[in-house]
Amino acid sequence: MAAQDADIFDDMRHRLITGEFGYGTKLRAEKLRHDYNCSASTVREVLFRLSTVGLVEFQEQRGFRAPVQSVERQHELTHMRILLETEGACLSIRMGGVEWESRLTAAHHKLSHIETRVRSSGDLIPLLGLWSRAEQEFHETLIDACGSGLLMRTHAVIYEQFRQQLVSAETNYGYFPENIREHQAILDAALQRNEDLMRVCVNDHLARNLTRPMPRKAQPEALGKSSAI
Amino acid sequence: MAAQDADIFDDMRHRLITGEFGYGTKLRAEKLRHDYNCSASTVREVLFRLSTVGLVEFQEQRGFRAPVQSVERQHELTHMRILLETEGACLSIRMGGVEWESRLTAAHHKLSHIETRVRSSGDLIPLLGLWSRAEQEFHETLIDACGSGLLMRTHAVIYEQFRQQLVSAETNYGYFPENIREHQAILDAALQRNEDLMRVCVNDHLARNLTRPMPRKAQPEALGKSSAI
DNA sequence: TACGCGCAAAATTTCGAAAATCAAAGAAAA
DNA sequence: TTTTCTTTGATTTTCGAAATTTTGCGCGTA
Residues of B with CB below 8 A from A49's CB? Predict the structure, then answer.
């Protein structure tokens, strides 16, 4: 029985991202232990580890619960993703080589293939799992030549919470055509190595998740950027 | 006894930030339990929670250890701090009111007072605790009108790790005069509500940590055998 | 000498129950 | 009726030991 803990962790993560638990629900170790027939302590540990990546919230003396969904939270997650992903993508442009380009192209190809199938079928749901993984891989590849493991790990954490928020919204197809175009635009910006364009593309792609726009200055993105790592 | 867990957490955090544990040292619950006389499980939990904020690293089936110090890590932390803090500060300028200005001024005043004392005595060490808290409060106040709890929490996590990295370097006084000037400049930028200037100031203030090499030797027993400190 | 195998010690994880803490319902006082 | 106190039930935290996994070391073999 190897790595029981890890299995439970993965399964719980899946259940959380999938939205199985109502947002804000209390996650009681004593209940959950039956799903995996293990002890409560083991579940407790898993919950701690899930809180490490922001998928559950922990409060001293009052246990764990699934995070509450709210417009504010959604906005904060989106905003943070924009911040991290534009930075990561621009750094990748600066530091990544042909090898990065090719990996990104590959990831995009896979994603694109799935998205085309979705478009022609008109129904996202049966391919949701596949698409979800492919999108994640594309976005992770986009920033993975940035040279900062910390940036990537932080982004991964935000990304998962973001996905947790969106899971219900995504299932109703909605903005798929735009999605396809935007992913293409991001790939193009990368291959052109155009950082400013990249900023715009990433922003457009993600900003749709803002029902209410973040307060922004009228003037375009400032030029004085932070120095490279 | 109330909140035993929390006490241990705070104490361990302090010990970690203080650099008491050699970087990369294994943190064995079985050893640590004697320091607090509690069970190993309790220590284990605390370690999990510390890993939530990046102060210790956890690896499946091979326990916990204090993070290894390295130039790369230092650079990644610095870079991330710049990213988060410029964004947070600019958002605060955009969204914060007079009330924010006054809080920031207050925090700066406290910090400034301590820094002046340090300068005239020429020795940081006796005031290190005070100064450290004041600096943290200043930087936290700087971004605390940004409107995103997520941004602030993320920044707090990075900040602590950053401090953990610097703890030894800070104690040798070094760049104090510049520090004073830079904190003033940041306050000025805030009161002028000049975002571009703010970006420059925050960048200058933090970027100094990019060139400075790590002043600490690698821990010989970091991997493999036990041989505690 | 180098390499692989297996045993023993050390470290980590898991367990079920006891102890501590919190929250809700009910009783007593105003 | 409202407020405050107390008891009771539920939940969370802590414990020490047993089960599992990793690691270190010695031994035999090429």
Answer: 48, 58
